[in-house]
Amino acid sequence: MLRIAIQSKGRLYEESMALLEEAGIKIPGGKRTLLVPARNFPVEVLFLRDDDIPESVASGVADVGIVGLNEVMEKRCPVGILKKLGFGKCRLSLAIPQNIDYQDRNWFSGKKIATSYPGILSDYLHKNGIVSDIHVITGSVEIAPGIRLADAIFDIVSSGSTLVSNRLKEVETVVESEAVLIGTDSISPEKRGILDELLFRFDSVQAADDKKYILMNVPQKKLNDVLSVLPGIKSPTVMPLADKEWCSVHTVLDEKCFWEIINRLKTAGAEGILVLDIEKMIL
Ligand code: ATP
Ligand code: MG
């Protein structure tokens, strides 16, 4: 069995479970215990606080883990990033009170910075030759400047709304983070095989994530116009319809690209456009 550590509750829990499910791995719900074997795949899930995941993988308690890159960097554990997972996106940034006239990062020299990420912050300051006073607090870092506990903060930002409501502004982005699958080299050949299968399934889920399958009806005489709008790399399927004057065109598109070309497809003569989600794509 391959043991995979995931966050027991919190921001990464739902999407970690969803990823396993989309990869066809059924984790029984109901009574939640620390360690739950999957019903149909040689994997067991170890539910932990995210702080403990890097260490659990480094020490071999778990074989792999799903955790924020920010936690991996902060804990400085000897683990490798096997795969970026594309969810839990956020950044670690320095923020200061809005009313300060900020020129560059030298502003932080001699200042007191509150953070829950002293490791990443001290590396960053050291690299930039800045000496500051790092004040470690575990929760509600963003209120520190308001209560004069610190001059600035170094914290997780996603939308930035928490900063705004505390009258802070983001001035330096230090790390871009997302959920990652971590592991080590010291894994048995048997477990390696299970892991390879898991990675293959994750790849297939991810490949499908931002893709759409689109179908449309096109008059035969407009077919070339429509095909010229579709991105060149993909070769669409063209099928006859009962009405000889019409055909059906099917293709796979990036979701982003779809929104750009939808109006051009209509202008070119496509009708009855259907857009479907793709569950998996085997590359
Ligand atoms: P735990 O109880 O497991 O220790 P936690 O409170 O430390 O949980 P969460 O707030 O659940 O952690 O966040 C988990 C991870 O989600 C973060 O480490 C980060 O990688 C990611 N994340 C994404 N967006 C955000 C955000 N807006 N705020 C905080 N974390 C975020
Ligand atoms: Mg935590």
TrEMBL record:
The keyword Ribonucleoprotein does not apply. It catalyses: 1-(5-phospho-beta-D-ribosyl)-ATP + diphosphate = 5-phospho-alpha-D-ribose 1-diphosphate + ATP. Residues 208-280 form the Histidine biosynthesis HisG C-terminal domain. Residues 49-202 form the ATP phosphoribosyltransferase catalytic domain. GO terms for molecular function: ATP binding; ATP phosphoribosyltransferase activity; magnesium ion binding. Pfam families: HisG, HisG_C. One of its GO terms (biological process) is L-histidine biosynthetic process. It is found in: Cytoplasm. Its EC number is 2.4.2.17. It is an enzyme of class 2 (transferase). Keywords: Amino-acid biosynthesis, ATP-binding, Cytoplasm, Glycosyltransferase, Histidine biosynthesis, Magnesium, Metal-binding, Nucleotide-binding, Transferase. The keyword Cytoplasm applies. Its main location: cytoplasm. Pathway: Amino-acid biosynthesis; L-histidine biosynthesis; L-histidine from 5-phospho-alpha-D-ribose 1-diphosphate: step 1/9. Feedback inhibited by histidine. Its cofactor is Mg(2+). It comes from the Bacteria. GO terms for cellular component: cytoplasm. Catalyzes the condensation of ATP and 5-phosphoribose 1-diphosphate to form N'-(5'-phosphoribosyl)-ATP (PR-ATP). Has a crucial role in the pathway because the rate of histidine biosynthesis seems to be controlled primarily by regulation of HisG enzymatic activity. HAMAP family: HisG_Long (MF_00079). Belongs to the ATP phosphoribosyltransferase family. Long subfamily. This is ATP phosphoribosyltransferase. It comes from Barnesiella intestinihominis YIT 11860. The lineage of its organism: Bacteria, Pseudomonadati, Bacteroidota, Bacteroidia, Bacteroidales.
